[in-house]
Amino acid sequence: MPNGPLSLPARLCLLAWDTDPTRAAPVVRAGALADLARRGLLVDDDGIATPRDLDSRTGDPALDGLLELVSESFPHRWRTWVTLHARYTLDAVREHLVAEGVLRAEKHRILGVFPSVDHVLADTARADALREEARRILSGSAAAEEVSATTATVLTLATAAGLPLGADDTPPTGFLSARASETSPAFAAVLDELRTALRDTAPTPSLPRGR
Asked: Which of 34, 129, 159, 201 is the most exposed place for a label (fewest CB within 10 A)?
């Protein structure tokens, strides 16, 4: 997957760009949970997402915000966290992408009174590259050794959420999930919980860009 420095939730935010925010929020949140789990900062405790260390931080504002939320909240299962206050994570990821120059925030007022912000895709080349790489992998055009565990995780979650990625053939979900967890067997159970939660999330109609 191109542009490696982007976090898991940031990649998913760009792949979900043409979808309604209510549909994008759960998959972006799932990406953040997966990212924290892969880093070892959230661990699975009999199905409960549990912080390993209350003082750990990643330096990524969206990931650290979620880690703090989980740390300060009543314990919940992974599936619950996929949707619980998921819009907070989506907003944090968008703000971080604005800071990175990938998105542009355009401020305006609704009815000339209420302040609002529209996010516009500024770095279209990066988003297009992510989508093209996803299409190649999901269509089977990419060699297996080209697919990293991180990229496999992104695409496992994207396909579970039903994101329109342009692949005509049936995506190799079994291969992707196995690839995602091959370097961390404990991650397999977490990924399965996140996939199930995303599949249970009802899709909503798409909105145009620049919403």
From this structure: 129
- Helices and strands, counts by H and E, the chain: 9, 4
Query: Does 71 map to a domain?
Result: yes
Residue 41 counted as domain residue: yes
- pLDDT tens digit sequence for 24-59: 999 999 999 999 999 999 999 999 999 998 888 999
| Angstrom distance (rounded) from CA 68 to CA 207 | 31
Please give the model's pTM, rounded to 2 decimal places: 0.88
pLDDT in tens, 98-142: 999 999 887 766 656 666 677 889 999 999 999 999 999 988 888
> What separation in angstroms does the CA of 124 have from each of 17, 133, 136, 191?
11, 14, 18, 29
Cα 113 from chain centroid? 33
Q: Is residue 164 part of a domain?
A: yes
Residue among 87, 119, 77, 116 at smallest CA distance from 101: 119
Q: Which amino acid is at 46?
A: D
Structural domain that includes position 81: 8-95+123-199
Asked whether residue 115 is assigned to any structural domain, the reply reads: no
Location of structure tokens 């998959």: 27
The total of other beta-carbon atoms located within 10 Å of residue 204's CB is 12
